[in-house]
């Protein structure tokens, strides 16, 4: 989920020496995100460090060399229920769409991403939902099935308060008021 590009922009600006790869499966979201990055003067000058790929992330990761990355931000496809305050129309849309397949897809993405990390590397799993099947239950399953990882708990990110749970953390994105809920977990691949 590289679109709409907010986290991608932050990564480009916050890590000026990093080579960044971003994957977006949906062609129209890919095109709109690329336009947004090109139109923004701050990110436009950093695009030489970006490999922005319109592909399925599972297929792309299968072609990558194991233990080749220091850091992965896995902003996984999700039910987006944490954005209901901004998008109340999702209530109607989500009723007509099944989201049950998402947790298996999310776990598959994590399982493909972890071997790409170098020893000591970090993966941040992020979704904008509060469904336990897409959040805590995913991390609980990871702790059972991947024995070379451990979870890192953060106290704050960019000054935002974090609410801890047994398997992960929730953060309200503010923009002046609490209007989006995000779940994330930082995973460290052990040496």
Structure summary:
The protein has 191 residues and is α+β, with helices and mostly antiparallel strands. 32% of the residues lie in helices and 28% in strands. α4 (57-63) packs parallel to α6.
Task: Chart the SSEs and their pairings.
Elements: H1 6-14, E1 20-23, H2 27-39, H3 41-44, E2 50-53, H4 57-63, E3 69-75, H5 90-96, H6 102-113, E4 117-127, H7 136-145, E5 149-152, E6 156-157, E7 160-165, E8 168-173, E9 180-189
Parallel strand pairs: 1-2, 3-4
Antiparallel strand pairs: 4-9, 5-9, 6-7, 7-8, 8-9
Structure characterization notes:
The chain is an alpha+beta fold and 191 residues long. Helices cover 32% and strands 28% of the residues. It is built from seven helices and nine strands; from the N terminus they run H-E-H-H-E-H-E-H-H-E-H-E-E-E-E-E. It has helices spanning 6-14, 27-39, 41-44, 57-63, 90-96, 102-113, 136-145; strands at 20-23, 50-53, 69-75, 117-127, 149-152, 156-157, 160-165, 168-173, 180-189. Strands 3, 4, 5, 6, 7, 8 and 9 form a seven-stranded mixed β-sheet that branches. A two-stranded parallel ribbon has the order 1-2. A hairpin with a 2-residue loop joins strand 6 (156-157) and strand 7 (160-165). Helix 4 (57-63) runs parallel beside helix 6 (102-113). The longest helix has 13 residues, at 27-39. It is globular. The two termini are 29 Å apart.
């Amino acid at each position: 989920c590289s679109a709409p590009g907010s986290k991608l922009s932050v990564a480009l600006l916050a890590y000026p020496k990093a080579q960044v790869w971003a994957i977006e499966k949906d062609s129209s979201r890919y095109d709109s995100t690329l336009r947004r990055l090109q139109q923004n003067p701050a990110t436009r000058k950093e695009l030489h460090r970006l490999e922005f790929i319109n592909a399925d992330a599972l297929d792309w990761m299968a072609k990558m060399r194991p233990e080749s990355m220091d850091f992965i931000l896995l902003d996984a496809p999700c039910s987006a229920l944490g954005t209901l305050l901004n998008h109340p129309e999702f209530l109607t849309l989500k009723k007509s769409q099944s989201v049950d397949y998402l947790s298996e897809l999310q776990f598959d993405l994590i399982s493909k991403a972890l071997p790409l990390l170098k020893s000591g590397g970090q993966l941040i799993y992020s979704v904008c939902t509060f469904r336990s099947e897409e959040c805590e239950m995913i991390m609980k399953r990871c702790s059972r099935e991947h024995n070379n990882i451990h979870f890192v708990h953060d106290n704050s990110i960019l000054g935002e308060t974090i609410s801890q749970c047994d398997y992960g953390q929730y953060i309200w994105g503010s923009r002046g008021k609490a209007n989006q809920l995000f779940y994330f977990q930082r995973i460290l691949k052990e040496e």
